[in-house]
């Protein structure tokens, strides 16, 4: 079974981190049986870290981990930092594919979502 | 006619600002006749500013301006900074409604979009 790990930047404001956690819970309930688990992790300033988040998925029995960057632009975090964390963890667990999904801002459907919000 | 102004944070990386501009162009072509104009503005670090962006919509003949925060969490920028910029501009143009749309991260459909990206 696949596990989904939503990766956000993390904030000093705990309410922003909680917003990500609540979104993750909604994501989990909407995912149905597409993922064994749906969790979140943070690049910095909040817990769990990305390596810890991936590790938790694997310990829970994931046969594949999908890491989805909850980021709007292809900045350094998306291009370098998150892939580096994923690569490090992949080395530790070569038998479990850890796949990096496209970051949110690159999703084609984001325009439709924005037009809906603007109504 | 209504004008849509997508408001992003702005980045020191010009490529991130360009990403917002390209998204805005896609948004404009998908909006059909729902908006007279679709433009973007930045809270900081890039141009145009939010007041300048709103002003451009009004000068182009907008009868209503929808300001849509391209932000993922309800931090200080979404809660205080953007509303303050909008309120200042509303005072200058009391006859043109300038409406603040919900920020992207609060859109209900974001879970569906994320699940699509994770496939």
Characterize the structure shown.
The structure is a homodimer of 119-residue chains. Chain A is α/β, with parallel strands linked by helices. The first copy, chain A, has 4 helices and 4 strands. Chain A has helices at residues 14-30, 50-59, 76-92, 110-117; strands at residues 2-8, 37-42, 64-69, 98-100. Chain A has a 4-stranded parallel sheet, with helices on both faces. The mean pLDDT of chain A is 96. The A-B interface holds A 4, 6, 8, 11, 13, 15-16, 19-20, 23, 26-27, 30-31, 34-35, 66, 68, 70, 72-76, 101-102, 104-105, 107, 109-118 and B 4, 6, 8, 11, 13, 15-16, 19-20, 23, 26-27, 30-31, 34-35, 66, 68, 70, 72-76, 101-102, 104-105, 107, 109-118.
Q: Output the strand order for the largest sheet of chain A.
A: 2-1-3-4
Mean pLDDT of chain A: 96
Order of helices and strands of chain A: EHEHEHEH
Q: Give the overall shape of chain A.
A: globular
Question: What is the structural class of chain A?
Answer: alpha/beta
* Quaternary: homodimer
Strand fraction of chain A equals 15-25%
How many helical elements of chain A? 4
Largest interface: A-B, 39 and 39 residues
Low-confidence stretches of chain A: none
Radius of gyration of chain A, whole Å: 14 Å
Q: What is the share of helical residues of chain A?
A: 40-55%
DSSP summary, beta strand count of chain A? 4
User: Termini separation of chain A (Å)?
Assistant: 38 Å
Biggest pleated-sheet summary of chain A: 4 strands, parallel
Which features characterize this protein?
globular, homodimer, 119 residues, 4 helices, four-stranded parallel β-sheet, alpha/beta
């Amino acid at each position: 079974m696949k596990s989904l790990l939503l990766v956000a930047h993390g904030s000093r404001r705990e309410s922003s981190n909680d917003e990500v956690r609540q979104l993750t819970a909604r994501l989990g309930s909407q995912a149905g049986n597409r993922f064994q688990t749906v969790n979140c992790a943070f690049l910095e300033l909040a817990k769990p870290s990305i390596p810890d988040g991936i590790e938790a998925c694997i310990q829970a029995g994931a046969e594949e981990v999908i890491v989805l960057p909850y980021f709007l632009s292809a900045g350094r975090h998306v291009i370098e930092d998150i892939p580096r964390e994923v690569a490090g963890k992949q080395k530790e667990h070569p038998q479990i594919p850890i796949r990096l999904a496209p970051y949110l801002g690159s999703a084609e459907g984001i325009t439709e979502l924005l037009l809906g919000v603007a109504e």
